[in-house]
Inverse folding.
């Protein structure tokens, strides 16, 4: 990687991957990250993340704020920076948490596309919805169209991602609409008062479960009440790749003790088109797909195997440049799965990895 300035778009490559790439080189410098009017600076010293600052704060919380910026741009300027060390966690855990929150926000943003929108309850006066927990009920009382999503996080003193999760489920249930302009009156807020009780129900079934959303392990006891509990996000919007092969080779299946036997290859009935080597738009789309595959694999595999994923992704990118097109993308998924088996990953981990990779090829 060349000295000086590195820049690009987070749409093309996830920010955690770019930070990891720079940190592996042991570099010192500053990432300038921007989405619309929101700006952040992330500082590295000898490859380690030591400080972050946004308009709303600094330290670890400021870094996590960037998880809501999926369309932003970044610019890394190499050079020592005189800043305080407000972040002491290891890079691996920081980037894993940042990536996890970005994955959650990709799903939530399908219904709550901006924290600057204004939630408004659709309930009639005196109407009590069934199946909401106390925190969600309080949001419904505050959702008059006056507060934005970000302002509701301040009022309720909850992380904005937690509030967005709750609103996601309330929108899906039809209890909330999101408006582009402020309206209504400011609701009365009593910070000392307990949240309104939910309607009595012997066994409260979260709205998310009735919508078919899968649960995940919560960050804390408080997170157990959130509506959106995601184990793996549903397939995220993917830039369409015309002509991508519908039939893929089967991923390796595990046989006892993590040893794999390759499943028979599925021969395509008709020749599949190959991307022209001189089509930069198509190559960019295919390269973005390899980045999604690598990111999905890293969420499953231990950190010790991430270098293997990076190496295979780089090889796939070279194949795409060489004109192999979709076959290189499909080959990357197969190579990662086989690499996990060869590295001695247990059978259950490989099955989980295969499920994650196959999900990326379904629409």
């Amino acid at each position: 990687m060349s000295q000086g300035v590195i820049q690009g778009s987070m749409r093309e490559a996830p920010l955690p991957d770019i930070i990891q790439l720079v940190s592996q080189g042991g570099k010192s410098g500053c990432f300038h990250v921007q989405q619309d009017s929101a700006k952040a600076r992330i500082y590295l010293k000898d490859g380690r993340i030591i400080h972050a600052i946004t308009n709303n704060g600094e330290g670890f919380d400021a870094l996590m704020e960037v998880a809501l910026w999926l369309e932003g741009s970044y610019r890394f300027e190499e050079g020592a920076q005189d800043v305080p060390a407000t972040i002491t966690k290891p890079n691996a855990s920081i980037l894993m948490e940042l990536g996890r929150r970005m994955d959650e926000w990709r799903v939530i943003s399908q219904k709550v596309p901006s924290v600057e929108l204004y939630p408004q309850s659709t309930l009639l006066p005196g109407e009590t919805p069934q199946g909401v927990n106390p925190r969600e009920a309080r949001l419904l009382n505050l959702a008059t169209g006056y507060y934005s999503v970000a302002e509701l996080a301040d009022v309720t003193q909850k992380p904005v991602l937690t509030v967005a999760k709750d609103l996601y489920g309330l929108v899906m249930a039809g209890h909330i609409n999101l408006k582009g302009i402020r309206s209504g009156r400011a609701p009365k807020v009593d910070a000392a008062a307990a949240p309104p009780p939910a309607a009595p129900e012997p066994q409260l079934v979260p709205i998310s479960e009735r919508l078919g959303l899968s649960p995940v392990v919560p960050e804390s006891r408080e997170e157990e009440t959130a509506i959106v509990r995601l184990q793996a996000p549903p397939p995220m919007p993917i830039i369409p790749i015309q002509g991508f092969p519908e039939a893929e080779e089967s991923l390796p299946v595990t046989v006892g003790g993590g040893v794999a036997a390759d499943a028979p290859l599925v021969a395509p009935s008709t020749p599949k088109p190959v991307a022209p080597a001189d089509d930069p738009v198509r190559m960019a789309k295919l390269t973005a797909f390899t980045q999604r595959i690598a990111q999905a694999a890293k969420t499953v595999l231990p950190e010790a195997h991430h270098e293997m994923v990076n190496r295979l992704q780089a090889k796939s990118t070279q194949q795409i440049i060489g004109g192999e097109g979709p076959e290189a993308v499909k080959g990357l998924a197969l190579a990662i799965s086989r690499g996990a088996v060869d590295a001695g990953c247990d059978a259950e981990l490989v099955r989980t990895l295969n499920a994650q990779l196959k999900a990326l090829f379904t629409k």
